[in-house]
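dude i think i finally got it to work??
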Amino acid sequence: MGDLYALDFDGVLCDSCGESSLSAVKAAKVRWPGLFDGVDSALEEWIVDQMHIVRPVVETGYENLLLVRLLLESRMPSIRKSSVAEGLTVDVILESWSKIKPVIMEAWNEDRDALVDLFGKVRDEWMDKDLTTWMGANRFYPGVSDALRFASSRVYIVTTKQSRFADALLRELAGVTIPSERIYGLGTGPKVEVLKLLQNKPEHQGLTLHFVEDRLATLKNVIKEPELNKWNLYLGNWGYNTEKERAEAAGIPRIQVIELSTFSSKLK
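look at this
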């Protein structure tokens, strides 16, 4: 009958870590201008470098802002508003982000929706002013653009990125047009609910279902839902995950850990 692929975007199709880290620094300067007094370009570059290491913990874009501030506070004790950043290392962030995040949100008196809006606004402004540079800070993984262009399967994007950014990158950078009704972005509900919606569409009955992700936690959430037992689950080993997570995934029967080349050939 054919195949349906539900694909995560960041870390599966697109390496957006450069752009999201730079956008997060820009947004953090808007949100907490006082904290960036005296921050030189060398320290900003250090933060962006560290962001590449801690990127696996990010589920939704606004968390990049929190990580930027946390990394800044770890280097500049004088600006700390809480003790969370004291002695903090990237290893601790990778291990304990789910515990750290609510603590700093409360300590810094931050609102999730406000940070989501700010992050989107800063990206929009960057795109409006200088689309070429914004695009250039992103890259599609090798072979992915062609695989999408020539895909014989039915392809959906299921992402926590705001849909307009995923759409712009697909069109402008990858040269691929995916109809907007096939892009489920931030605000369309949890990924498990989107997968339920997709599998229940009348036109999808009889299709073999595949979900490709780079976050192990997301795949584990799918496994918890008996209703989603029909989905074949894949962890992309080229994405934003750690060696420890890949080893754990390899021990879970439902999950296949796959290479980028295997993924591209499956799509075609």
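Strands lie at 3-7, 14-15, 139-140, 154-158, 183-184, 208-213, 232-236, 255-258.
im so relieved honestly
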